[in-house]
Amino acid sequence: MQQPWIVVRLGRIPFSLRVDRRLPPVLALVLLATLALMVINIGVGEYPIAPLDVVRTVLHIPGSPEDYDFIVNTLRLPRMLVAALVGMALGVSGAIMQGLTRNPLASPDMLGISSGASLVAVALIVVFPAVSPAVLPFAAFAGALVVAVLIYLLAWRGGDSPIRLVLVGIGLTSVTSAMTTIMITFGNVNDVQRAMVWLTGSVYARSWDDFWPLFAWLVVFVPLALLLSRHLNALGLGEDVARGLGSHVVMQRGLLLLITVALAGATVAAAGAIGFVGLIAPHIARRLVGPSGEGVVPTAALFGGLIVVAADLVGRTIIAPIELPCGLITAAIGAPFFIYLLYRARA
Questions:
Q1: Rounded to an integer, what distance in angstroms lies between the CA atom of residue 326 and that of residue 337?
Q2: What is the separation of C-alpha 106 from the centre of its chain, rounded to a whole number of angstroms?
Q3: Residue 1 has pLDDT above 60, yes or no
Q4: 3-class SS of residue 241
Q5: Neighbour count for residue 75 (Cβ, 10 Å)
Q6: What is the DSSP code string of 62-83?
Q7: Residue of 59, 109, 248, 329 with fewest CB within 10 Å of its CB?
Q8: Is the N-terminal amide bond of 336 cis, ω within 30° of 0?
Q9: Distance separating alpha carbons of residues 255 and 261, to the nearest angstrom
Q10: Whole-angstrom Cα distance, residue 292 to residue 184?
Q11: d(CA 347, CA 332)
Q12: Quick one: CA dihedral 58, 59, 63, 67, positive or negative?
């Protein structure tokens, strides 16, 4: 009888993973769907380009007009890559957060981490408009980190608790959101308009300068998240059981929380506040590959990328030539989904 899982061992390296047998085909299908949507999205616009020409231009295969190279590789490709990376980071961040808190409603935007990053970024835009935009990514990450540390410190009572983390996170979300609203209310009209566009979450006009810093964050933290994802299984059984199984609960929870903060802060810095992706992607992943952390984290990453790329495509085409920010599309999908989760939890 065929086993329902696959065991992966890395030769002489003392590391192994046991993943659901459904994982490889699911990852392959989601990756293909994401690449297909990216090709379609790159070809859409005021200057439409056929999908085959998009592929040729990206791969530098001769046969396409010369001006395609500037449109595809300079203007549209970095935007698509930023969208995919933002979605991947949000998916991983949400999967870890839901595993840590054992709460299906948890995600970085729900627990205040994204709103902390947004608060600092809006403060720079509205209160200190003369500050260089290059400072924005670092400021957003610092805001996310400060909120995460506050959550951890305020929830600490001789040990941390998933329930306290959730409650403190929701409280800090309210505080940071209120402070953001105050700054928007009393700020200069032009600066507020700029901040509001950024707060909706968008990958509009993202360039290679936006892609490389985000890529660098993901190269470090996504593999680290995959490496530590198996600890989510023990942590999901409860603190006492995890300690009984030999887990270093506080250290593992702290490392996973740091990864969540780093990825959430990086996405806010790159594309603003794109909500609900970190909530939806892990739920879809669990449905398809089971609850194991080794399967949920990579699947949620790819589904996060698929969701943001699809949201950007819908936003660009639904009322073309006007473009809607992808954050509005994810909110339109995510809000009913969140209400459904609340209803199901109550039932």
A1: 17
A2: 13
A3: no
A4: helix
A5: 15
A6: SSS-THHHIIIIIIIHHHHHHH
A7: 59
A8: no
A9: 10
A10: 42
A11: 24
A12: positive
First to last CA, the chain: 38
In the numeric block, the tokens 């995890």 are attached to 242
Handedness of CA 12, 16, 22, 27 (dihedral sign): negative
Residue 23 is which amino acid? L
Q: How confident is the model at residue 29 (pLDDT cuts 50, 70, 90)?
A: very high
Residue pLDDT, tens place only, 98-146? 888 777 777 777 677 777 888 887 888 778 777 776 677 677 778 888 8
Choose among 109, 93, 167, 31: nearest CA to 334. 109
Contact present, 306 and 277 (Cβ < 8 Å): no
pLDDT bin (cut points 50, 70, 90) of residue 234 is confident
CB atoms within 10 A of CB 192: 18
